[in-house]
Amino acid sequence: MAPSTASPPMYHTSYPKLLSGRYEAILLGSWNRRLVINPAPAIEEELAGLLVYLGKIKVEQQHAAKVELDKEAGTLPYLHNRWHPDIPTIGKIENNEVVKIQCVDWTGGQIGNNDSANDMRDVDLTKIHYLTGPFEIETAEPGDILVVEIQDVQPLEEQPWGFTGVFSKKNGGGFLDEIYPEPAKAIWDFEGIHCSSRHIPGVRFAGLIHPGILGCAPSQEVLELWNKREGELISACAHMDRDVAKPPEPINVHAGTADEKIKEKVGREGARTIPGRPEHGGNCDIKNLSRGSKVFLPVHVKGAKFSVGDLHFSQGDGEISFCGAIEMAGEITIKFSVMKAGMEELGTKSPIYIPGPVEPQFGPGRYIYFEGFSVDEHGKQHYLDATIAYRQTCLRVIEYLRRYGYNDYQIYLLLSCAPVQGHIAGIVDIPNACTTLGVPIDIFDFDITPGKKVEKRDMGACAFAS
C-alpha cells in the first residue's frame, strides 16, 4: 500500500493520566502508525480521551518489566530469589496504575522441553524462585494494605509450553516421595486456553492461569522473626531424615541490582522463597488467584516492594509433587491500589483474597471424589492428621486410575497439575481427619466413572531420568 501524501497528524496522549497505566498509542486510519508515549509531551487529557472515544487512536499497556528467556536468570537485574527489605526496587508504580509484568518460570529456565527427566534430577534448588521485582508502589507505607487486582495472566507467545515435575527425594522430594522417590516430568503444550501432554495421553483441560507467588518485602523485624522461628523448627527436627525448612543460603543468591555489600547481606539473612508466610503471603500456590481476583497484602516497608513470579497454567489443590503445577514463563497484568492503614481497618495480619469469576466449568456431578483418613499406608492410626489423610486420598486416586494403563508417576503428576478439588471434610471427629479429592471426569477422553467397564490402554510413559 502506497503511503498517504497527506501529513499525518501527530497525536499524543497524556501519560499516565489517560487510563491510569503505561501505554503506547496506535494511530488508526490510513497511516496506521504506532506512537510510543512514555512519557508523552503535550495534549489536553480531554482531547486524548476524545480521540480514543472516536476510534482515532487506541492505547496499549506497556510493560513494567520484560524478561529475556535467552539469558541466565541469575544475571538479570529485574529478578531476585530471596526475600529481604534491602533488595533494591527496579521501578515505581503509581497508586491505581495498571501494568504488565513478565516472569520467567520458577526455575529460571533449568527445565527443557524434552523427553528426559535428567534436568529434574539435577535442578539446582538454591536458585529458585526467580521473582520479578521488587516494585515500589507509590504512597504505600507500613500498616497499609496493597490491593493487587489480577486483570490477566497468559503464557509468553515465544514459549507456548510448560512442565510438571517430580523431584528426586534426594533433591527436593515431594508430598509422596517416600513412595515415589525418583524424578519424573511431563511437558504440556498450550492450545489456546487448553493444554495436553504427550507424556500423559488421554487428558485435555482448560487452564486456570495464576501466579504462585505474590508478596511484599518483609521489614527487617519481620525477616528476623521468620529466621528465628524457622531456625527453631530446624533445630527441633534435626533427627528427621528430611528438610523441614530452608535456612538462609548465600549460594546462588540473586538480589537484582544490589551491590556486593547488600548481596552478601541478602545471602546471609534473606528468607528463602519456598514457603508462604503469614505476614506477607509469598509462595501460597492458590490456584484460584486467576483473572478477576483481588489479593489484599500487608505492607511492612515503605513502597511495599512488591514481587511476583512462579506463574502456573494450571494446578491441582495441594500441588502435591512440589514442582507440581504446569510451570511456565508468562505475563501478568495487575492493577495496584493502596488501602491506607488497611491492616488495622481489615483487622488482619495475613493476606486475604477474593477469587475471580473465571474457573474451568465442571458441573458438581462431574467429579469423582475420593476420601482419605488419618490412618497411614502401614495401618498406623494418627490423631486428626490432615496431612496423613490427604496423602491417603491421593493414593486412593492413584490406585483407581492405574487400572486404565497409566503408571503411578503419570497419575502423581496429573493430580498435581490438573484442576482437582481438595478439601478438608472433617477435622473434629477424633481420631480421624477426613479429606477429599475431586477428579473432574471430563478431562479424560474416556469414561472413568465407577461401574463402567475398564479398558486398560497403552498410556506410554512420562519422562524419567536416565
Molecular structure report:
With 466 residues, this protein is an alpha+beta fold. The protein has three domains: 1-61, no CATH class; 64-354, Sandwich (Jelly Rolls), CATH 2.60.120.580; 367-464, Endonuclease I-creI (Roll), CATH 3.10.28. Helix content is 15%, strand content 28%. It is built from seven helices and 25 strands. The protein has helices at residues 45-53, 118-122, 220-236, 260-269, 342-346, 386-401, 408-417; strands at 23-27, 33-36, 57-61, 63-65, 79-80, 91-93, 98-103, 131-137, 145-155, 161-166, 184-191, 194-197, 204-206, 210-216, 276-277, 281-283, 294-298, 306-312, 322-327, 330-339, 352-354, 367-373, 421-426, 434-440, 463-464. Strands 5, 6, 8, 14, 15, 16 and 18 form a seven-stranded mixed sheet that branches. A six-stranded mixed sheet has the order 4-7-20-9-17-21, with no helix packed on it. Strands 10, 11, 12, 13, 19 and 25 form a six-stranded antiparallel sheet that branches. A hairpin with a 6-residue loop joins strand 12 and strand 13 (204-206). Helix 6 crosses helix 7. The radius of gyration is 24 Å and the shape is globular. It starts with 22 loop residues before the first strand and ends with a strand. Pfam families: FmdA_AmdA (PF03069). InterPro entries: FmdA_AmdA, FormamaseFmdA. One of its GO terms (molecular function) is hydrolase activity, acting on carbon-nitrogen (but not peptide) bonds, in linear amides.
Task: State the gist of this model.
The protein is 15% helix and 28% strand. By secondary structure, it is α+β, with helices and mostly antiparallel strands.
